[in-house]
Amino acid sequence: MREALAADYDFELPERLIAQRPLAHRSDSRMLIVRRSEEKIEHAQFRDFPSLLAPGDLAVLNNSRVIPARTFSDDAKIEVFFLERLAPKTWLCFVKPGRKMRVGKTCSIGGVLAEVIDVKPDGERVIRLTEEPDLDRVGHIPLPPYIQRSADDSDRERYQNVFARQPGSVASATAGLHFTEELLATLPHAFLTLHVGPGTFMPVKTERITEHPMHEEAYEISGEAACKINAASRVVAIGTTTTRVLESQPPGPLAAANGRTRIFIYPPYKFQHVDALLTNFHLPRSTLLMLVSAFGGYDLIREAYRQAVEQEYRFYSYGDCMLIL
Predict the structure, then answer these.
(1) E strands within 55-211?
(2) Is residue 1 part of a domain?
């Protein structure tokens, strides 16, 4: 079997299929169902999701909350994108334009002085502030680059999962966007946390996928969640972020854990903890598409995406979803 290349995960997607806004109601999404054992593809609605679970199944969701990470200096000349809090009043950030924010340079964000104290090799800035930034007041929700509009007030609610509790992500765990509080209340479920970083949107630029530098993200599994997962007859991961946390753990029963993961899942890969996967449709050449292909089977997922385009499913963050059983 030849080595897989990034080009193997390319596909043509008409721009009109990239969802620019969410549907009026979260659970109105369409859902493509992939049955691996039968190599069968079906078309349904997300509201059918509960009926596809069996006794003993457990839905596992990522409860990370998106922070309003995109800010601008008070003179509007500098964009500062808050990525991760490293220490009190110290953050890792993207800054544009970088030439105006070298080590020692400062700007004011919502009246708070921010100074660059380090520049990372890939251009990220470590910024120290005189007080913690009030991102809820001065920040904007960081919509993905393929959404060709500025975030508005409605995105503060709709680009957030209804169960999101732990602030720290700069992109939504989008498989969860289809759930309402009412629907979730009908399902056995557990939460873990993975703070989604900007690397989730980064395409694989190396032709050999094994040479791709995978991004790192922080996660946590509580003891309560580990017990629920261990007791489940089938673990249904809600999203690739949940999958990455679970598959980062050692084989065997789960334990409470926290740490950072840069796990890169691509075919062939033997899954240890995830039995079914609900996920949105992903970008060409993305690590997320490779993960889904490893779970569903390369040829079957390729055909599922072909049918999704043919049937004009809505793609990406605000789009429809796929359930792989």
Answers:
(1) 57-62, 64-66, 70-72, 79-87, 90-96, 106-109, 112-119, 125-129, 166-169, 189-194
(2) no
β-bridge pairing 125-129 and 57-62: unpaired
Instruction: Give the model confidence (pLDDT) of 270-322 as tens digits.
Output: 999 999 999 999 999 999 999 999 999 999 999 999 999 999 999 999 999 99
- What is residue 1's predicted lDDT score, i.e. its pLDDT? 56
Inter-CA distances, 265 with 48, 102, 212, 275, 291, Å: 28, 36, 12, 15, 5
Helix (H, G, I), strand (E, B) or coil at 281: coil
Measured CA to CA, the distance from residue 245 to residue 260 in angstroms comes to: 9
Tell me if 201 sits within 8 A of 99, measured CB to CB. Answer: no
Please report how many Cα atoms fall inside a 13 Å half-sphere around the Cα of residue 16, on the Cβ side.
4
pLDDT for position 298: 96
Which residue positions in the chain have pLDDT lower than 50?
none
pLDDT in tens, 2-16: 677 899 999 999 999
What is the domain range of residue 133? 70-138
The string of DSSP codes covering 8-39 is GG-----GGGB-SS--SSGGG-EEEEEETTTT
Q: State the pLDDT at residue 2.
A: 66
How many independent structural domains does the chain possess? 2
Domain holding 116: CATH number?
Answer: 2.40.10.240
Same domain, 133 and 175: no
Q: What is the pLDDT of residue 183?
A: 97
The CATH number linked to 267 is: 3.40.1780.10
Q: Please indicate, yes or no, if residue 273 is contained in any of the structural domains.
A: yes
Whether 290 is in a domain gets the answer yes
Provide the H-helix boundaries in the chain: 135-138, 155-158, 181-185, 223-231, 240-247, 287-296, 298-310
